[in-house]
Design brief:
It is an enzyme of class 3 (hydrolase). It contains five helices and nine strands, in the order αβαβαββββββαβα. It has about 210 residues and is an alpha/beta fold. The strands form three sheets. The protein has a five-stranded mixed beta sheet, with helices on both faces. A two-stranded antiparallel ribbon has the order 5-8.
Length: about 210
Amino acid sequence: EAISGARKTWVTTGTPGDCVKIGINAILTEEEQPDIVISGINHGPNLGSDILYSGTVSCAMEGAMMGIPSIAVSLASMHSDYEDFDFTAKFVRGMLKRLKDFNFPQKTLLNVNVPLLDADDIAGIAITELGSRMFTNTYEKRVDPRGKVYYWMAGELTNESADSHSDIAAIRQNKISITPVTYEMTKEEVMTDLEKTLCNHDACDWM
């Protein structure tokens, strides 16, 4: 169905990350390859440990893994309408102009969270680190009209880190949070101690 003013778009039945993979590797030609991948605007925050579960961030992560500068963008409120996305979209457009000459590090994306406020009420921009958010693990057992059982995730936020440099703190302070994130998750400082414990500096041949 054609919608006046709309551009041609594609829909996949895969994961959010699949959208980036199929778009770049199958749909776009070599001449159409993107200069940047922008994922979002997500309807809700992606703060702290949220990113481990986030389809929005995984899209940007796929772009970063392909060596393409990538940004994940979220409106940090679950209680918003699509009209509320206008300021966030304008902010991203302005940010892209400022990032024109920025050399994105390899394996790195930017995770952006914007508070649901009028432009005049936003207190600024903060370059942040990831905070920590913990939720209760609550699942409601339900039955659909066909009698099939399913579970609805209904956990509540129980704890947030209060570190002043975190993305969570920035949103609490009515600031836009921009966090550089990498998919390199190896805890390198633990490797030596782990090798001592399991291998005693020799080959791990005790199996």
